[in-house]
Write a structure and sequence with these properties.
The complex is a heterodimer of chains A (420) and B (259). Chain A has 420 residues and is mainly α. Chain A has 16 helices and two strands. Helix content of chain A is 63%, strand content 1%. Chain B is mainly alpha-helical and 259 residues long. Chain B contains seven helices and four strands. Classes of the chains: A mainly alpha (420), B mainly alpha (259).
């Protein structure tokens, strides 16, 4: 992708590179022209890569000691916590790492929503991202089942039962998923297998995600196209590397706080009770990062429609590039969208809150209103806003002052519309 | 930088408000000073040893602790009995072993490597002996209850006469901290129930505190090393973050842009 032809200096390097251009790739990655006005919201891509690798490394280590058997899983986790050298550390990093991963991915997604990073020409990056997000949810859910505590067991029961909502074949599918007539040992072993597999699928998709990113290059807070390389860009190394590194360290401090001082605060106490098919917990709640979707699921009275609503809530994101009709990417120049954006953020937080509460009375009413608004935002507000909104003048380049407009306002407008 | 600070405060706000929402429904628990809370929290060694005494003389007649071994009692970060003491404790229990070369099971005195001897052979036996209620295993009990140590500490002291509008079946007791207020366990502690070797006055409050401390350790045997390592890790990260921050400023000073 580099504009200039790269040639390794050493003879050996040239010999190797002619056969497998790994050095060209490395050179492309270090030289990759990056907009220099990226703010800290753009550091979460690097942070997410760190999260994925952390989960894979700690997960591999845990898998060496964990036993995927209904009678032994809970005990083997306690064995890891007590007798494996630093087993408690590895497990707490892995368990809290999942939460940190989702925290980072939500920031990453909402950054994209704010700055319109999903718009042309970056739709493929966005769609791959949504697939990664879906796989993350699957991996996290199955991982939560592995300790075989009460929430593991009953969470697995509730979620797999959702498939029974499918007409005609639903029941059959559930039996097939379980490998029996209830959540039991066969369910646990297949969840373990899939939990082990999915991170590597994610890893592959991350490579595609980054590859697709390197074709058009990064979006930026101003949301305009920039010439690469130019005065508006800096090479990835060292500028972005050190900045991402700095942000990653800040993130790791928060991460470390949870691991060392509040390792169980994000989990549910019931998961320290061994799974018991005869005793149902008072409230079955998923992990915090799935709560908004859980709220959507429960806000619909019909089971099948509830499942459809929940899935649509995620899949609707995949068609977002076509639902948002505005030509302007960044919310900085979209005064109305900016307000609706923050309403959406609040809406999702409210959904998360009511998802943790019992689905009754006022909570249920709030969940229904918030669910309706969620879909309204994507299906009505965004398409209409693109036509109705009066956007602010967009600068010609990011080196120009953002405020006060650009001297060639008309030209800027022209340019923007040509891009789309 | 300002943005970054805002970002992290928002993150922490969201997380804490989210997790608090789980523990919404509850009565106010009794409070006491736990030595193991906080950045440098450590267990009170004497309290752990007394707590073990309460566990083994009172709780252990019904509650198992199946994930602990006698060797744990002598390990650093725990009650830290001497190895000789731990061996003596282990030897005071009869452990079923075998089969021997004749194919027979036999009993022998416990060893350090043995798991804590269970009061009942299995869950059914435990239920049969306790009017159908299973006394839960205590190894990770404080982590398995929403209120944690405060809940256990309060529950042990929460036995009261039932209010007149509450009727209790036989073998059911009233406890103001229990979920639903009805509990199948009779008040386990009474003043002077155990005789502490170190002369500490064995009030219900004191025993509750000691045994709860012991349960915290049994659920988190590596809590002390976790706190110690955590402090070092965070100090290290902060220093590194500051160094990287200044390196970043230096590097970015080459271009006209703000970081």
């Amino acid at each position: 992708m580099s504009d200039h032809e790269y040639r390794p200096k050493s003879k050996v390097g040239q010999w190797f590179n002619d056969r497998l251009p790994l050095l060209t790739l490395a050179n492309h990655l270090t030289d990759y022209p990056t907009p220099k006005n990226l703010n800290y919201w753009w550091t979460f891509g690097g942070i997410l890569t760190f999260c994925l690798i952390t989960q894979i490394v700690t997960g591999l280590t845990l898998a060496m000691h964990y036993i995927a058997h209904a009678d032994m899983a809970f005990e083997s986790v306690e064995h890891i916590m007590r007798d494996v050298n630093y087993g408690w550390l590895i497990r707490y990093i892995h368990a809290n790492g999942a939460s940190m991963f989702f925290l980072a991915v939500y920031i990453h997604i909402f950054r994209s929503l704010f700055y319109g990073s999903y718009k042309a020409p970056r739709e493929i990056i966005w769609i791959i991202g949504i697939i990664i997000y879906l796989l993350m949810m699957a991996a996290a859910f199955m991982g939560y089942v592995l300790p075989w505590g009460q929430m593991s067991f009953w969470g697995a029961t509730v979620i797999t039962n959702l498939f029974s909502a499918i007409p005609l074949v639903g029941e059959g599918i559930v039996t097939w998923l379980w490998g029996g007539y209830s959540v039991d040992n066969p369910t646990l072993t297949r969840f373990f297998t899939l939990h082990y597999l999915i991170p590597f699928l994610i890893l592959g998709l991350v490579v595609l995600h980054i590859w697709a990113l390197h074709v058009p290059g990064n979006n930026n807070p101003v949301g305009i196209d920039i010439k690469k390389p130019s005065k508006d860009t800096v090479p990835f190394h060292p500028y972005i590397v050190i900045k991402d590194g700095f942000a990653l360290l800040m993130f790791m401090i928060v991460f470390a706080f949870f691991v060392f001082y509040a390792p169980n605060i994000l989990g549910h106490a019931d998961n320290y009770i061994e799974a018991n098919p005869m005793v149902t917990p008072a409230h079955i709640v998923p992990e915090w990062y799935l709560l908004p979707f859980y709220a959507i699921l429960r806000s619909v009275p019909d089971k099948l429609l509830g499942v459809v609503a929940m899935l649509s809530a995620i899949l609707i994101l995949a068609v977002l590039p076509w639902l948002d009709t505005s030509k302007i990417r960044s919310a900085v120049f979209r005064p109305l969208y900016r307000q609706f954006y923050w309403i959406l953020v609040a809406d999702v937080l409210i959904l998360g809150y009511v998802g943790a509460m019992p689905a009754e009375g006022l909570y249920l009413l709030i969940a229904r209103v918030a669910t309706a608004y969620y879909f309204l935002h994507f299906l009505v507000i965004l398409p209409v806003l693109g036509f109705k909104e009066k956007t602010l003048p967009v600068p010609l380049s990011i080196t120009e002052p953002v405020l006060g407009g650009s001297p060639n306002l008309a030209a800027a407008r022209n340019k923007e519309s040509k891009i789309e | 930088m300002k943005n970054l600070f805002k970002l992290f405060s928002i993150i922490i706000l969201i997380i804490t408000s989210n997790s608090n929402s789980f523990a919404a429904e509850k009565v106010e628990y009794l409070k006491t000073d736990w030595s193991f809370k906080g950045l440098f929290g450590k267990f009170d060694r004497a309290s752990l040893q007394r707590g073990y005494q309460v566990y083994t003389e009172v709780c252990a007649s019904c509650h198992s602790m199946k994930y602990l071994s006698y060797r744990n009692l002598a390990e650093p970060g725990g009650p830290e009995f001497s190895e000789a003491q731990a061996k003596a404790i282990a030897a005071s229990f009869e452990v079923t072993d075998g089969p021997n070369s004749d194919g027979e099971m036999f009993t022998r005195p416990g060893k350090l490597s043995d798991k804590f001897v269970m009061p009942y052979d299995n869950v059914k036996a435990a239920q049969a002996a306790n009017g159908g209620a299973y006394p839960p295993d205590m190894s990770v009990l404080v982590k398995a209850r929403g209120g944690g140590v405060d809940y256990i500490y309060s529950l042990l002291q929460g036995y009261e006469e039932a209010p007149s509008n509450v009727s209790l079946d036989d073998g059911v007791y009233y406890n103001k901290y229990m979920y639903g207020n009805k509990i199948r366990m009779a008040a386990p502690l009474s003043d002077g129930l155990v005789e502490y070797g170190d002369g500490t006055n064995a009030t219900v409050e004191q025993m509750s505190k000691d045994v709860t401390t012991f349960l915290m350790w049994s659920a988190e045997p590596h809590l002390e090393s976790r706190h110690q390592m955590g402090f070092k890790a965070i100090v290290y990260l902060i220093i590194l973050t500051v160094l990287v921050y200044f390196s970043m400023k230096r590097i970015w000073s080459r271009v006209e842009s703000e970081v």
